[in-house]
Amino acid sequence: MKINFKHFLGLVFALFVQIAVAQEITVTGKVTDQGGIPIPGANIIAKGTKESTQTDFDGNFKIKVAPKQTLVISFIGMNTVEVPASVTMTIQLKDASNQLEAVVVVGYGTQSKKKLTDNIARVTAKDIQQIPVSSVQNALVGKLAGVQITQTNGKVEGGISIRVRGAASISAGKEPLYVLDGIPLITSNESSNGAPTNPLLTLSTNEIESIDVLKDASSAAIYGARGANGVVIITTKKGKEGKGTFSINLSQGVSQATHKRKWLNAKQYVALFTEASINGTGDAAEAEGIFDFLAQGTDWRKGEIDSDWQDTAFQDGFNTDADFAVSGGDANTKYFFAGAYNNTTGIINSNALERVTARTNVSHKVSDRFNVGMNLSFSRSQIDRVQDDNSFTTPLQAVAQSPLSPIRLADGTANPNTLYANYLLAIDNSFWKTLVRRITGKVYGELKIIPSLKVNSDFAYDLMSQTEDNWNGRNTPFQSTDGDVFASSVNIENYIYSNYLSFDKTFGEKHTINAVAGMEFNKYNRRYQEVTSIYFPNDGFHTIDGGAEVNGGAGNETDYTFVSQFGRLNYSYDNKYIFKASIRRDGSSRFGKNNRFGTFPAFSAGWIVSEEGFLKDNKIVSFLKFKGSWGKLGNAELGNFASRQLYKPNSYNLKTGLSFDQAGNPNLTWEKSTQIDYGLEVGFFDRINIEADYYKKNTDGLLFEVPLALSSGATTINKNIGKIESSGFEFTLNTTNIATENFKWNTSFNITTNNTEVVSLPNNNSDIITTFTINRVGENVSSFYLQEYAGVNPINGDALYYKNSKKADGTIDRSTTNDYSEAERVIAGNPFPTLMTGLTNTVSYKGIDLSFTFQGEWGASIYNSAGIYQSVAADYFDNQTADQLNRWQKPGDITNVPQARLYGGNGTSASTRFLDKADFVRLRNLTIGYTLPSKAVKDLGMTSVRIYGTGVNLLTFTNYTGYDPEARRDDTGIGEEFYSAPPARTIALGVNINF
Questions:
Q1: Apex CA 930: angle with CA 924 and CA 936, to 5°?
Q2: What percent of the chain has pLDDT over 70?
Q3: Is there a contact between 905 and 304 (Cβ–Cβ < 8 Å)?
Q4: C-alpha dihedral (323, 329, 332, 334), degrees to nearest 10
Q5: H or E element: which one contains 312?
Q6: CA distance linking residue 105 with residue 234, whole number of Å
C-alpha cells in the first residue's frame, strides 16, 4: 500500500493538536474578598505565559491553562496570591493595608510588616486618593502616629511643616528627607516674596501607591547623615500583569475659610475711638479729625459707609481635579501611565494654583535574569501669589483698615486714601507669578547573578526649574518710579548613582538571611539669577525689557556632593527571632575638612511570641511581637558653606574689593541624633491590632553661631555645641469591627505624646532669647518667653502685669504692677503640641461607602504678634476685634480688656495677653460614595462607576480666639500668628470610572 506523505503529515499534525488540546483545561472560578463580596476587575494570569483574563462584574472568570499551571491573582489594594489551577476555583483576596504580610518599603528594598523590627508608619493609595487638597502632605494629616503635619496658612502654595517625633534641631533643618522611588527629592524653599512655597506641590496623589514614614533610627539609619528628621518614602504606582485597565476621576469643589473673626462695624468703631480719644487726649477732636480723613467726604456720623474689609480679603474658592491612569502588562513588560490636572482658586483674594502632572513607569523582563525599567514624571505648576503676612499689601492685613473708609471709589478704582496702603491697589496694579517645572526620573537595571543574589544599578535625576515674575505698576502702593519689574530664575538639579547587591536566602528551612550592600553618589547643583528694571512708559509693559533702566541684579551658583557606602543585614530564625543591623558611611562637601565623613550604625531585634508553641494556636491572641532598636543618625541641613572661611565682594565708587564675611571652622560637622525605640505589636481574634512604642532621641552637636571677639574681624563662628532630647509614646489601634458580606466597618486610631527639651547650650548654657521665645536648659525648645498679663485694675482700668521678680529670700514676687518695665519675662507656653491624635473610620454597606478622619492636637500655644494692633482697645486707629467692646469703662468693671486710651499704650506691650492655647479637634476629611450596581454599567463597557462627595476641614472644635489653631505667620517666627489666613474648608463632588 502506497502512503501519501502529505496525508501522513496532516494526520500527525492533527494528532498533536488533539494531544495539545487534551492537555489544556478550562478553569472557571470566582474571586472575592474575605467577606465573600465579588471583586470585579481582578487580574488572573497563567504564570510564565501570556494567558490572562479578568473577573467580570460578579467576580467570575474563565481561562484555559495547562493542568498543573499556577495562577497569579491580583487586585489593587489586595495581597497577590498564587494558587495551582483546578477546574473550579474560589479565591479569596486579603486586604493588604492592615495585614501583617503587607510589604513596606524600607530603603533599597522591602520587608514584610510581620518581620519588621523598625517603626514605620504607612498609608496606601486608597487612604489619600480623592481628598481635594493641593498638596500630598495635607492628605496624610491625622493618619500617622508620631507625625505632625501643618500647613503654614490658607494660601494654596503655603509651606508645609512636618515633624517626625518632634523637632530634632534648633537652628538646622527640621524637615524629613523625602525619597521618591529612590530619588532624594529637592525640597528647598525658593520663594523670593518672603513667604515659603511647598516644593512638593509638584506631586499628584493619583500617581502614589504608598507612603512609608521611617520614624526610628533602625529604619532611617540606611539614609545616614540625612535621616535624623525622619524619612518619607514615596512609592509610585506600577503596572501589573493582566488585561489593561483604564480609570478616570473627575471632581469639582468649593472652598471657604474655616473661620472668620469678628471686627467692629462703623457704628462700633466710631463709639470706641471717640471714647478712646476722650480718655487718651482729653477730647474727641483727635478722633473726629481722623474720621473725616478716613471717610473721604462721606458722612461717617450717619453711617454712610460701613466697609467689611475682611469680606474683600477672602473669596469663595474653587477647585477642579481631573486625573486618569492606564496600567497593565504581561509576564515580560508592565506599564503605568498617569496624568492629572488641578486648578485651585484659593480662599484669599487673587491666590490661585494651576498644575499639570504626568507619569510613565515601565519595566521589562529582558531575560529570566535581567530586568530593566524607567520611572519618569513631569509637572508644571503656575501660582498666582500674594505677598507675605508681614506686608501691608497682603490681603489679610486689610482687616486693619477702618470700616469708615470706602473700599473703592465711585469710578471703581481702589481707594488710595486709607489708614494703611489699600491692598486692592496692589491687586489691581501688580502681580506675582511663580512657575515651577519639575522632572524626576530613574532608569534602573536588575541582574540576577544566582537565584539568591542580584545586583541593582540605578541612575536617578531630579530637576526643579522655577521662575518668578513680579510686576508693579505706577499706582501700586509704595511705588517711587513709573513701575518696576523683578524677574528671577533658579535651576536646581540633583542626580544620584546607586549600585547595590541584594542577597535573600533561607537555609535549613529555619535560617533566613536578607542582606543589602552598596554605594551611592549624590551631586546637587543650584544656579540662581535675578534682575530688576524701572521706569516704564505705561502699565502695559510687564517684562524686564520694558523698563528704561536695569537697576539691579544678582546671581550665584552653589553645589554639594555626598558619597556613601551602606549595608543592611536581616536575619530571622524559625520566623520567631529577628535581628537587623545596618550601617551607612556618608561623606559630604558641606562639612569641615577635618570631619568630612561620618558613620551611622543601627541595630534592632524582635521576638514573634505568637510563633512559639505555647501561643501559636491561641484563639484569643492571634499575634504578639516585641521589638527594640538603637541607632545613630545625622542632620546635614546646615547650608553649603557653614564650615568655610568666606569673603564677599565690596564695591565703592566703581572700585571693587573683598572683605571678610565668615570665620571658618574645619571641625564643623553634622548634628548627630542617637535614638532608641521599644515597642510591641499584638493582635486579638484576627480583628484587633495594637502597636505601642516608647521612643527617645538625643541630638548632639547642634549648630550655633557662637560670638567671637570683635578683633577677629567676624562677629560669630559656626560650631557644633548644644543638645536636645525628644521623647514620647505612640499608640496605634486598628480594628475590624464588622466584616460580613454586605457590611464592613474598620477603625484606625492613633495617639502620640512628645516632649522636646533643651539639654545643653553654648556659652555655659546661656539662654538664647529671641523676640518672643527662649531656649533654656531644662525647658521645651523655643518656649514662649513673655511678660505675664494680669488683667485689668477694676478701680482705674489700667492694664496689669505680674512682676515675677525674684525676692531677696529667693521666692517669686507675684504682685501686680501697671508699669510694664517692672515685670520680668517668664516661660509661658510651648509652640509645639505635646499630644496628637487621629481617628479614621471606614464603613461600607453594599454599594455605599463612608470614611472620615478626626484629628486632634493639645499642648501648643500661639502668640498673635499682631495683637498689639488688633486687640488693644483703640490705642491706634486700626480696626479692632469685637471683644474690645468689653472694655473697662467705670470703676468696678470686671473685665480683661483695659480702658480705651488713644495713644495711651494701655496694655499694648508684648505679653501673655496675646498668647492663646491652640488645642483643637477637627473633622479633617469626610467622604461618602456610592458604587453603581454592576448591571447598570456593564452594557457601557465599564468595570465600575463610583459617585462620591468629600470634604476637608468641615468642623473644628477649639477655644482658640484667632483665625485658626493651625494658621501661622509665613515670613518668620516660631508659633506666631500675624494676619495669617486660616486653612480652607472644601466640599467636592466627583465621579470615578474604571474600564
A1: 160
A2: 96
A3: no
A4: 10
A5: helix 309-313
A6: 9
Mean pLDDT value across residues 850-877: 96
Which position has the grid cell 477647585? 319
Query: Backbone phi, then psi, for 288, in 5-degree steps?
Result: -65, -35
Digit-coded pLDDT (tens) for 633-666: 999 888 888 888 888 888 877 778 888 888 888 9
Q: What is the CATH number of domain 5-93?
A: 2.60.40.10
Cα separation, 3 vs 122, in Å, equals 72
> How is the chain split into domains, by residue range?
5-93, 137-258+314-788+829-865+913-994
Distance of CA 254 to CAs 151, 259, 272, 599, 982, Å? 19, 15, 37, 51, 16
Radius of gyration of the chain from Cα atoms?
A: 32
* Residue 160 near residue 135, CB atoms below 8 Å: yes
Looking at 2.40.170.20, 2.60.40.10, 3.40.50.300, 3.20.20.20, the CATH number of the domain 137-258+314-788+829-865+913-994 comes to 2.40.170.20
Give the pLDDT band (50/70/90) at residue 956. very high
DSSP result, 390-451: TSTTSGGGGGGS-TTS-SB-TTSPBPS-SSS--HHHHHHHEEEEEEEEEEEEEEEEEEEEET
* Most confident range, picked from 505-509, 615-619, 736-740, 789-793: 789-793
Could you tell me the end-to-end alpha-carbon distance of the chain, in angstroms, rounded to an integer? 61
Residue written as grid cell 508553641:
613
**What digits encode the pLDDT tens for the residues 386-432?**
999 999 999 999 999 999 999 999 999 999 999 999 999 999 999 99
pLDDT recorded at residue 39 = 78
Decide: 387 and 194 in contact? Cβ < 8 Å.
yes
| Cβ-contact 471, 482 below 8 angstroms | no
